[in-house]
UniProtKB/TrEMBL annotation:
InterPro entries (UniProt xref): DUF7144
Domain DUF7144: 29-143
Originating organism: Paractinoplanes atraurantiacus
Domain of life: Bacteria
Pfam family, one: DUF7144
Transmembrane segments: 25-52, 72-89, 96-114, 120-139
Key words of the record: Membrane, Transmembrane, Transmembrane helix
Keyword flag Calcium: no
The protein's name in its UniProt record: DUF7144 domain-containing protein
Record carries keyword Isomerase: no
Amino acid sequence: MLAVMSSYATERPSGAATAPPTTGWIGIIVFGGIMLMVAGAFQVIEGLTALFRDEVLLVTSEDLLIDLSYTAWGWIHLIFGLLAIAAGAGVFAGWLWARIAGVAVVFVATLVHAMFLPAAPVWCTILIVMDIAIIYALCAHGRDVRAG
């Protein structure tokens, strides 16, 4: 009788989807999620610097590719940084929308960093490299994370 009851407990209804097996690539998506949150935090710092300490930046805002005030640049960086942090948290939860949003946010953030490059060349170069690594991790192996 006990054997019959245990067989009922382990059987799945017909048509029930089984979760794909976890692969060894899970570390890459964890890396991507962590880096997404770290890059978001760095972008928040960059935004706060542009808002409150723009005298430490190398050029005037008129010398940037798009002529916006440092206040506008600060808000752009701050918003994208907070979106990246939220998407990184969603990646850890295994949400598909978070991976899609993470790639979109990081792609646009890469373009923003490229435009902001004259103001902080080393900082923006580091963030662009981080952004490329994040996009790779989320696109190439993001399917290995699933909501639990």
